[in-house]
């Protein structure tokens, strides 16, 4: 019975979702209330359920006061039938489960929804406001037991007046304290909610700009200052794949049909591979076939080791076959490159953001960029040029850390290989990696190295305290709590200018040096 | 290096072998005492540090270099061999091809790395995933001791990172041989253990020379 709210309200999903989780867990904890709620689609909006919880809670505590509880429950049910209708009418679409009949006032302003929602959560989470209910129960914090108020059992002497008064006072203090705490928490929740809404509104408005203004005029607008700035903020997830595709381009002119051809070729190969898996056959066919089949086996081994924590690329997972297909088709399309470790991560990120054929097209074109081609062909001398260029900017931007690394002979290949091969998708949290990809699509290879310097800058103080093995361990397994705000402000602070030379110029001059003579430029190994 | 009469040794160890044989799992088991079937593929190199209280006077710090197994990375990852004092070569008992690659890994290692005394670095062979039952060693009828002798391994162990079998033992064996080789009297004066000239025909450019 999951009728999702219609599109105009889509951007409030997060809150609705979190709200809904709460509801579900509450239902689990109080299954006996389910039958009363009727069938799922007709289930009432949750707020009226709350008193039932409270009532039940009280029964547990008060023990003897069952008649009160009964009264209360009865009261609650009559109350609910009264409350049910207006609740549904006033808040269309805020309910995730159950049918929400279409209404003329459907495209509601998000602010109104927010206010209504907040009012509702207010009623849900805060102690009951001074309302009709107050007549029935005094304010009672959820966590206190109120036993202190109870009179002693009849077979014991009654409390003295002073004692009763003291208890009363202590109880009041406890209640006041708890009330303060809960109000504080409610404020905090409200603040978080407000921030989240703001963030969502930003995303929603950015999305509108991307969809309505930028994408229809892509070539004319992509390089404008306004678009570039908006781009830096991160692409809204709904247009991310599209923008990546456009930015990466399709120099190779791959069509979805071409993808199908290479995919069917890959499938034939898998079939014959699994049929004749005995080793003797492959040896006859020569090294190239053996290599290719080795490639197929490598893909199989690596797929399950791609984002294992997401459980979607593993065998039996929803994207397992898809990842297999894209990588397999690529090895048929580019036998000269074949499958190289790291590719599975890149293909996986694309699959998460694009349709199958589009993911393949973006994958093949992305890997065809000079930097990616150099790395995935393991062109070692080219890779060393990239590392050397990186070090030029490393020294320029972070001279202290640069010397620290030098003193341990800690070279960029120790940490950059993983970062560049997987485009940070393995070392950074996935959402953050996607933001790096956003700007990588905007700025090209330079941004990959700039990101690396941003990471070093972010952790400079920590790294300066570490020795070789700890730095190496740290950089090959970055902290998981890294946030995009902090990282991107560090990346922004990295200057990609070296005595007026930009990345491309520095790189080009290193390439030129290479041609003029290697000997002058190979430093003696330090031990 | 020393705290009163306590000696401290720092050894760099390589862990090499074909892709997916369980190098990372062995290291995680050894260093962190845990196992997960869901490790991510290693790209380039990963690191770990293990400290052993070898005996009353000696502390051994092991720097473990977990090197990506894909053959293609060859030229790139061989740079990481520099200054290593010992190595594990790992294969997967359920995949015969990974055992066939063992001699290739060993030859490659010996061609690029020798100890100051001119000898090959002590290397232990690990037959990993032995918990999975399929015993390629028995099936092929290979006498492992003989194999080790012929190929210059100082020892071999059937290991399981999953079931924690023989990993500590294998490490002790390797460290024992490293300590023994260190006290070998035939010491070379040349501290640089890289001998690029030996294999200049094999590698186009000596990658190590670019390093500093």
Automatic annotation (TrEMBL), chain A:
Keyword Coiled coil: yes
Record's compositionally biased regions (Polar residues): 14-23
Biased composition (Basic and acidic residues): 24-35
Pfam families found in the cross-reference section: RabGAP-TBC
Keyword set, alphabetical order: Coiled coil
Keyword set includes Transmembrane helix: no
GO BP terms in the entry: vesicle-mediated transport
Domain Rab-GAP TBC: 234-444
PROSITE patterns for the chain: TBC_RABGAP (PS50086)
Record region (Disordered): 1-55
Name of protein: TBC12 protein
Record organism: Melanocharis versteri (Fan-tailed berrypecker)
Gene this chain is encoded by: Tbc1d12
From TrEMBL, chain B:
Membrane-protein topology: Lipid-anchor
Keywords noted in UniProt: GTP-binding, Lipoprotein, Membrane, Nucleotide-binding, Prenylation
Stored PROSITE patterns: RAB, RAS, RHO
GO biological process, alphabetically ordered: endosome to lysosome transport; phagosome-lysosome fusion
Alphabetized GO MF terms: GTP binding; GTPase activity
GO CC term, one of those recorded: phagocytic vesicle
CDD domains listed in its UniProt record: Rab32_Rab38 (cd04107)
Organism superkingdom: Eukaryota
SUPFAM superfamilies found in the cross-reference section: P-loop containing nucleoside triphosphate hydrolases (SSF52540)
Compartments (UniProt record): Endomembrane system; Membrane
Family, as annotated: Belongs to the small GTPase superfamily. Rab family.
Function, in words: The small GTPases Rab are key regulators in vesicle trafficking.
PANTHER family (UniProt xref): RAB FAMILY, RAS-RELATED PROTEIN RAB
Protein name per UniProt: Ras-related protein Rab
Annotated organism of origin: Furnarius figulus
Gene: Rab38
